[in-house]
Amino acid sequence: MDKRLQQLLDKQDITDLIHAYCNAADRHDHKKLRALYHEDATDDHGSFFSGAAMAFIDQMPDIQAPMKILHHNVTTINIAVDGDYAEGEVYVLAFHQVQVDAGTADLLIGGRYLDRYEKRKDQWKFSHRTIVTDWARHVSPSEVSLDHPMVAGSHIGQPGPNDPSYGFFRLLQRGIH
Question: Which of 22, 98, 100, 132 has minimal CB crowding within 10 Å?
């Protein structure tokens, strides 16, 4: 196969991996999230968490418990591939609505994922992910309003299997990559 074609296919597989991460995080789908990392992968969220990715995923239910809304949006993706190893700098806008003592607060983070990927057994997965925050906006109380008349009757997204997407898709199965 032409080297450029293989590189394009590898970049697409990695891009799909990045998007699957966002979906799994937003839906609190820890089974799917676990499948995106190699067993020996590491994750570095700064002083919040740094260590084995599987240990981080084990903590996710507690970390995400106060998060009423998670919404990751990937923008710029830069990927370099060298055989079965690749690196990526992925820009992300991540919105969080968090339950706090005083009600709810909004946190919008503009940042980047600094990733290392490895292709093992013909499948690309994360081998390391570092989170970099470039800016953040915190608003308390929350400015999110899902009860406005303009959204009345809308299907409202939510974490977990009660999200409308779980019952809708046949091909984009939840809980798997």
Answer: 100
